[in-house]
Design goal:
Helices cover about 60% and strands about 0% of the residues. With about 200 residues, the protein is mainly α. It has two domains: about 50 residues, no CATH class; about 120 residues, Up-down Bundle (AhpD-like), CATH 1.20.1290.10. α5 runs parallel beside α10 and α8 crosses α10. The longest helix is centred in the last third of the chain and has 23 residues. The relative contact order is 0.14. The mean pLDDT is about 95.
């Protein structure tokens, strides 16, 4: 994928991204992604972002299915085509059923989710909507996600992938070449309202 001519922060080319990644310990596979071709313009920052991703994705205590439900919900709610598309692929590699992933679009009306799934999805919506998880939903997390480290990761996962959704949209990071957006059906959520832009209009 080449950098769009009007990119806010141009992506590094493949060779430059790999060189920058090698210098700060970011894996080569991450350096191939469009988002890291942008982040590696700031190598130290990219390394620290990668460290948190590595912990949450590969060494986490939170069950991977629930982590991916959180991410897919954020991608949908925040209108992040890159996040939805990339984690659709991650979730399918984890053999999470398509119907479960589609269900996060309107999870309250879906019968695809157990009590713990619904607790993490409620926590996600509450954080996106009001900045914090309510006492009632936290009690549900305590009842259904008994591991304390996993509950901490629910909070950190929501924060991390919300940050990514904002970064991806603000910097208009493109999908990699040959990747179709918004799988599996191309449905797109209503764009998130940007109150700052609205005030400036």
């Amino acid at each position: 994928m080449t950098t769009p001519p009007d990119a806010r922060i141009p992506m590094l080319d493949v060779d430059a991204a790999h060189a920058a990644a090698a210098g700060v310990g970011v894996p080569e596979g991450m350096a191939r992604l469009s988002v890291f071709k942008v982040l590696l313009r700031h190598e130290d920052l990219a390394a620290r972002v990668n460290g948190l991703l590595h912990q949450l994705l590969w060494n986490g205590s939170l069950e991977p299915r629930r982590r991916e439900l959180i991410i897919m919900r954020i991608g949908w709610r925040q209108g992040s085509v890159y996040e939805w598309t990339q984690h659709w692929r991650v979730a399918r590699m984890l053999e999470i059923p398509e119907d479960d992933l589609l269900g996060v679009r309107d999870w309250k009306a879906s019968d695809r989710f157990d009590r713990a799934d619904r607790a993490v999805l409620a926590a996600t919506d509450e954080t996106l909507g009001g900045g914090a998880i309510s006492a009632r939903t936290w009690a549900e997390l305590e009842a259904t996600v008994p591991d304390e480290k996993a509950r901490l990761e629910v909070v950190l996962a929501i924060a991390n992938w919300s940050m990514f959704a904002q970064l991806l949209r603000t910097l208009e990071v493109p999908l990699e070449d040959g990747v179709d957006p918004w799988p599996p059906d191309g449905a797109v959520p209503e764009p998130a309202r940007n109150p700052v832009a609205s005030e400036l209009d």
